[in-house]
Structures are given as structure tokens and as C-alpha cells.
Amino acid sequence: MSTLQDVPLAQAYRLLNHGPTVLVSSAHDGRQNVMAAAWAMPLDFDPPKILVVIDKATHTRQLMEAAGEFALNVPCRYQAQAVVAAGSASGADCDKFAASGLTPMAAQRIGAPLVAGCSAYLECRIIQEPHNQQQYDLFIAEVVAAQADSRVFSGGRWHFEGQDALRSLHHVAGGHFFVSGDTVSGQP
Amino acid sequence: MSTLQDVPLAQAYRLLNHGPTVLVSSAHDGRQNVMAAAWAMPLDFDPPKILVVIDKATHTRQLMEAAGEFALNVPCRYQAQAVVAAGSASGADCDKFAASGLTPMAAQRIGAPLVAGCSAYLECRIIQEPHNQQQYDLFIAEVVAAQADSRVFSGGRWHFEGQDALRSLHHVAGGHFFVSGDTVSGQP
């Protein structure tokens, strides 16, 4: 039985608030692709917007610009090897889902696939900002649907206790990641 | 003796690559301020650029727009309480360095102060992009100097083993953070 649950759009920013590495999935005209990206973050709360940096040289860039849509998938510790594989090859040369051992699954509101087995999903529609896209490889998008694995995200909060395999990945460099660790709190 | 070392500018993106919460410090015309921000990330490698989202309602916004400069400071686990304090009050009403228990120190190339005791520093000059600033509260800046604490960052890499108090903070919500945890790796 699936443990995926819809996340209210006003809470979607919390899926990226802690700075995880993401997988960007895209599709257009019968082709699909997935790539790793460390540079994604929230931009606004409600309606939720996100930022992601996607290099002009990538196959993902072609697909997402053509479709006007993409998804951000938040991968888990157990997927570290697949994330590095998805960040290494180019989807112009191979089927990166197959090459990375990742499985596509249907999204709710966009044509791009999601990556099965991730901890969270943000389905995104590009807000056209040609100057940012051309000058900085920077994309602004609205989040139109969000889901998360209720084992580690519920009530608007991440909770990884007892689910070490599902902890988020935070890219250091060269295929090395920190996983999200202990929780600490401060008082306002 | 200080453990701070200069970080080559081409490696500055690695100070933010793993998605830490930052403190934004700013100064103009004899006033200075510090605030917490979860929404900051790299935008480019060399020359290094970063993105940060700063709400129009903040005192920091006034100071950084007036000065054209600010610093991103990467705070540590032991500073979690101060980070929450710096994210709660407004610098328009009080001296937030004093109110948060944080100590300013001189930057290398900008007028804004740095926050003493952080693990890394990026001194930034704003690249004027009025549409992004007005429409999205989004700032693009070039990193003109970078430093890190050599106990936890050297040779272009973070290494927190044996330095738990210096681990980075990743904001979940409401003053709760994950700290950077174990390291995992994949093979390209």
C-alpha cells in the first residue's frame, strides 16, 4: 500500500526548506529524463514557487523548456548511488531512468514522470522569465501539486526518526552527501 | 589563534552546496543588522554567484539595498538558539546582534560585518536585477571573498567528524533544524 500523501500547497516549501539535493524529472514528445541538482530551493509560500538552476547543456533543459513543466523529487539515503548515476551521464545519450536504476511513475497534474521511491514530490510549471533563464540558467516555477511519504513527512513536518534509509541527501561535492541528521531547536 | 582560512572563490559554492540555513548580515550609514534565512543557495561556480530571498518587510532588505552588499554567514549547531533569535525579532526595533547574543566582526572586502563564530562566510555584492528584487524578493549577488573554519572545511570539502558543535543547521520549520549528519557516497 502506498505511503504517499498529498501535501497542502501552502506547506510545499517545507519539502525543500532544509536544502536537500533533488532529482529533476522531465518529459516532452515521447522522451523523458531525470537528473540530479543540488541547486533548488523555495522562493515563495502560497502559491508556492521554487527556484532551480539547470545548465543549458543538459537534456533536461531541452525537455523542461519544451514542456513548460518538470518535477522536483526528493531522493533518500538508500538512493544515493542512483542519484550520483543520474548526475553523471547525459540523458541525450541514454535512457537515464534505466541507466540509473530509477523507475518513473505518473504525476498528478503534469506530464513529466515522478521518480518512484523518493520521499517527496513537487510538480512544477515554469513561470516564463527569459532573462533569468538565458543569463543565469535560473528557472522560477509554481508548484501545482505536492506529495510526500507519510512515514517521514506528515502534519507539515519531516520526521526521520527510525527511518534512516529515507533521510534526505545534501550534496557536498563529487558524489559525497551529508544525510539529514539530529534535530536541534531554538526558542523564539 | 583564528582557525579561519580564505576559501578560493572557485570553491565558494561548496560552502552552500549542502543547503544550510544562513545568517544574512548587512550595514549602511552606521546601522547594522543580522537575520536568519533558509532560502539561499549557489547560482554559479566561477566567478561565484549566489541567490538569497529577502522579504521587503525586513530591516535587512533596507540596509542591503542601500549598501549594495551583504554577507552570508553559515552558523553552527551550537548557535541554533541565536539563529532562531535572529530570525524572530526585527532589526528595525533593536540591535539584533546584541539581542541575539551574536558578535559582529570585520569583513575582508565589504562594509557589512560578519558574524563571529560561524563556520563559513561569503561576502557578496548585489548584481542589480530590479525585476527579480521587486517581483520575487530575490537577490543575485557575486561572492567577492570567502572564508571558512579550517576545523570543518579545508581542501574544498566539509568534514564535521569530531566537531559536532560546528555542524551546519538546516531549517525544518518553527525553529527546528536538522544538523548535517553522516556522510554517504555514490560512484559515478
From TrEMBL, chains A, B:
Protein name: Flavin reductase family protein
Gene3D superfamilies assigned: Electron Transport, Fmn-binding Protein, Chain A
Biological classification of the source: Bacteria, Pseudomonadati, Pseudomonadota, Betaproteobacteria, Neisseriales
Domain of life: Bacteria
One Pfam family linked to the record: Flavin_Reduct
Family: Belongs to the flavoredoxin family.
Cofactor or coenzyme needed: FMN
Domain Flavin reductase like, first and last residues per copy: 14-160
Keywords, in A-Z order: Flavoprotein
